[in-house]
Amino acid sequence: MARFASSSGPSQRQLRVSEQVRHAVSQVLQRGDVRDDTLENAVIAISEVRMSPDLKIATCFVSPIGAADSDGVISALNKNSKFIRGRAAVYLKQMKYMPEFRFRIDTSFDNYAKIDALLRKPEVTRDLADHDDDDDGGDPNPGDVPGHGGDGND
User: Shortest CA distance to 90 belongs to which of 38, 152, 28?
Assistant: First the structure.
């Protein structure tokens, strides 16, 4: 009998370990242990780490800040992944196996910017303003919910 369906998302253990790995990789990059010209000129934010179910592969999603060539930063991180893994081992002593690090570009900020741009379009703001005018006096719980009606029969 299977404990969980595979589509249920990451386990609590995966989430806990991924946060520990994110912190460890951030510490290694922050200390400047990695000697690479591409990495020395960029500030790198580790936004998320996703662990495989067996905790042997850590996919690190990074956002290079101030780097003209983000693909170059990703390739430099992947090239130095074994060195980063060795340095991160100091921070992850409690793990039975040290995961393999894979670095990917984080596109979530681009997605947020697209959604923000869509919400700021004049057509959308007009529709949102029209919707606010149809409100029923600012009552967050409209209807005959006890304690929220204005009829005094509460």
Answer: 28
The SS3 of residue 2 is: coil
**Amino acid at site 121:** K
Q: How far is Cα 91 from Cα 89, in angstroms, rounded to an integer?
A: 5
- Which amino acid is located at 55 in the chain? L
User: Model pTM?
Assistant: 0.67
**3-state SS assignment for residue 67:** coil
State both tokens at 64.
């290079």
Nearest to 64 by CA among 96, 94, 104: 104
Q: What's the CA angle centered on 145, arms 129 and 150, to 5 degrees?
A: 70
Per-residue pLDDT, 62: 92
pLDDT at 143 over 60: no
> What digits encode the pLDDT tens for the residues 63-120?
888 777 888 889 999 999 999 999 999 999 888 889 999 999 988 777 778 888 888 8
Calculate ∠ Cα 143-149-154, nearest 5°: 125
